[in-house]
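In response to reviewer comment 3 from the previous cycle, which asked for concrete evidence that the modeling workflow produces usable outputs, we include below a single protein chain processed end to end. The sequence was submitted unchanged, and the resulting structure tokens are shown without manual editing.
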Amino acid sequence: MGNRRAFLGNLAALTAGGLVVPASLDAAGAEPEPASADWDLTWKERITGDFRAVFDCPVVNDGAGLWRAADWKRSVQAVYGDAGRQASSVLVIRHEAIPMIMNDAFWDRHDISKQDRIKSPASGKHVRYNPFSARPDTPERQRAFTLDGFIAGGGIVLACNYAFGLMVSREAKKQKVEFGEAREATLQSLIPGVILQPSGFFAVIEAQRAGCHFFPASA
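The workflow returned the following structure tokens.
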């Protein structure tokens, strides 16, 4: 009983001091290799350095999740200088936010803005393109806050395959083809650099396993 009481006392002291005890001793062990090649997990190798965060984005909310993921990376660099240049920012797009990962042609073909009631944050109006991707006239200082600009700057964008299936279903209905054929076509409509994962919650947890701090980004 004495040993148990001492252990609990030490644990309470560590918690009060802001230290986190690993949930499992396996956390310090070797990373298991994926048994399937169906999913790209190489993005985890890009999560390095002392500053790591994953931003969960289940709703569009004027692109708030994207903005926060990009601004956090900028803020770390501004505050810590060279030490913050390797900040790893992971954005997980899932659920209702999934149209954000589709290119302009897909938005136009399916009239996403009007059908999903997503207006351009800049104009407050419905548009025929993805308002979260960079435009030819996007000022350089704002490009980091677009999806493709975030990716170009080293940000990691993961997307929920379940939610992506809804985009595939729209394409299948529009083109009057089978789901499998529509999926191949819809994959070509992803913004380059977006990485599909089995689910959004899988992606969030994998990022946390890679050392990222979690932030609910689109609320």
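The first helix runs from residue 2 to 16. We consider this sufficient to address the reviewer's concern, and the full set will be provided in the supplementary archive.
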